[in-house]
Design goal:
alpha/beta, two-stranded parallel sheet
Length: 159
């Protein structure tokens, strides 16, 4: 996994570049928040890096960064793994699926794997109820996955 301080430096460098490109726009905050995507801003340093450059108060852009959810408090994985916890998936074993991720890959909801590949979240419905239980990695939906071996086979594709 990339050390947090190195990731932070790389992401801050990217964010500074975006700020320089957009700061002359009349209201640059939304454009600045929208473009980087998956930028990790550690607690305490979330807004100071850009509020002074675009002349916004830190309180207002911190609020925007949380509200818009384009920035995160913790490092994000290369892939988002969303476990559906909608009714059909829940009834068909989504909780067991989540526990399997936790037990075998040390991956809990809202956390990122040690290798930095996956961040797991829950969603309420992905619209694939006939395939329940379902999880989504990026844009790919995986359904009727009911064993550790099937999950392992899928996760190998992303390494």
């Amino acid at each position: 996994m990339i050390p947090a301080d190195q990731m932070q430096n790389d992401q801050y460098a990217h964010l500074k570049k975006v700020i320089e490109e957009k700061k002359k726009i009349r209201n640059p905050l939304i454009e600045i928040l929208r473009l980087p995507g998956n930028i990790w801003l550690p607690e305490g340093g979330s807004s100071g890096i850009y509020c002074s450059r675009i002349k916004y108060s830190c309180e207002s852009d911190l609020w925007c960064s949380y509200f818009l959810q384009f920035f995160y408090d913790d490092p994000r994985g290369k892939y988002n793994l969303n476990v559906c916890l909608g009714t059909a998936c829940f009834v068909k074993g989504a909780r067991l699926q989540s526990k399997c991720f936790q037990k075998n890959w040390e991956l809990k909801m809202g956390e990122t794997t040690k290798d930095g590949l996956f961040t797991m979240s829950s969603v309420r419905c992905v619209g694939a109820c006939s395939l329940a239980p379902v999880f989504v990695i990026g844009e790919e939906t995986y359904g009727r996955i009911d064993s550790k071996d099937k999950i392992a086979e899928i996760l190998k594709r992303y390494k």
